[in-house]
From TrEMBL:
A matching Pfam family: ABC_tran
Keyword entries, A-Z: ATP-binding, Nucleotide-binding, Transport
Family statement: Belongs to the ABC transporter superfamily.
Coiled coil start-end: none
TM ranges: none
PROSITE patterns, per database record: ABC_TRANSPORTER_2
Annotated PANTHER family: METAL TRANSPORT SYSTEM ATP-BINDING PROTEIN TM_0124-RELATED (PTHR42734:SF17)
Protein name: Metal ABC transporter ATP-binding protein
InterPro entries: AAA+_ATPase, ABC_transporter-like_ATP-bd, Metal_Ion_Import_ABC, P-loop_NTPase
Organism: Laspinema palackyanum D2a
GO molecular function, one term: ATP binding
Keyword Ligase: no
Every ABC transporter domain range: 25-269
């Protein structure tokens, strides 16, 4: 049973998504202009259910642009994005099955909201169209939600932070809390955009281990932008090398082979590789 199992009118789509080799994301000929600049050109790939896929590439390669286009946060110039078998524009309530942890999570650190309350924001009722007691009196406590929040925080080893103000958390603690926010409801796809930037080496390794455990338990498909090729090669199933266009993709030992890294990062990589 997946944590935070949710009611959804699109049950058939979800059942399909639980089976292996189901296509969670399908990108066809995606191009994105940012102003007059072509940030992404003619990118196509598919993500299968239950895989942990990294997007790597140099600064300005279009990695965040790709993630934002998949989430529908920025417009596409051309091409098609399908999520769970549906065009992005027709995702409807299935959108709640996407979890996203951005590169930077900017908020007012003096805002008085606790960790438990933040995670609770990710929880939704099972029957959204019925006027339940909770919807009529949203300030009243909801035992189902409390249980879901506690079990998500426990799973990311952050239950002890539950009553702490979110503004006082360290970078690593905040990332765990955001992961709990994603975990409190059933999700299919988790997108992380350099989510571990600024987290120390041990924290990063622990987070990757936790992410892979959750991927197996929850059958999450994970798409993560990362600059840490070492972590990527150890923890991801597939790697997509991007530099404005898709340079290559495949298992880490193939995609991260020196000739592919040279094609992705250019001569600067050759110097780096030589010096280390
Ligand atoms: N809002 C914007 N307006 C105009 N150009 C932008 C905008 N955002 C990004 N760009 C440009 O699009 C290109 C791709 O940027 P993007 O942030 O997707 O790269 P990235 O691979 O995520 O880089 P990094 O590794 O540095 O985070 C860059 O040349 C960037 O300058």
């Amino acid at each position: 049973m997946r944590m935070g199992e949710a009611w959804d009118g699109n049950r058939r789509d979800l059942d399909a998504a639980f089976t292996r080799d189901y296509s969670i994301v399908k990108i066809e000929n995606l191009s994105v202009y940012r102003g007059s600049y072509t940030a992404l050109r003619d990118v196509s790939f598919e993500l299968k259910s239950g895989t942990n896929v990294a997007v790597v590439g140099p600064n300005g390669a279009g990695k965040s642009t790709l993630v934002q286009a998949i989430l529908g946060l920025i417009p596409r110039s051309s091409g098609r994005v399908e999520i769970m078998g549906r065009p992005l524009e027709k995702l409807g309530r299935l959108r709640s099955h996407l979890g996203y942890i951005p590169q930077t999570f900017l908020f007012d650190r003096t805002f008085p909201i606790s960790v438990g309350e933040v995670v609770g924001l990710g929880w939704q009722q099972r029957e959204p169209f019925s006027l339940s007691r909770i919807q009529r009196f949203p300030w009243q406590s909801n035992p189902e939600k409390e249980t879901a929040v506690m079990s998500a925080l426990r799973r990311v080893d952050a239950l002890h932070l539950r009553h702490r103000a979110v503004g006082v958390l360290s970078g690593g603690q905040l990332k765990r809390v955001l992961l709990a926010y994603c975990l409190v409801m059933s999700r299919q796809l988790l997108i992380l955009d350099e989510a571990l930037a600024g987290v120390d080496v041990q924290g990063e390794a622990d987070f990757y281990t936790l992410l892979n455990e959750l991927k197996t338990e929850q059958n999450w498909t994970v798409l993560q932008v990362s600059h840490d090729l070492n972590m990527v090669s150890r923890h991801c199933d597939r790697v997509i090398c991007l530099n404005q266009t898709l340079v290559c993709s495949g298992a880490p030992d193939i995609a991260l082979a020196p000739q592919n890294l040279l094609a992705t990062y250019g001569p600067a990589f050759a110097h780096y590789h030589h010096d280390h």
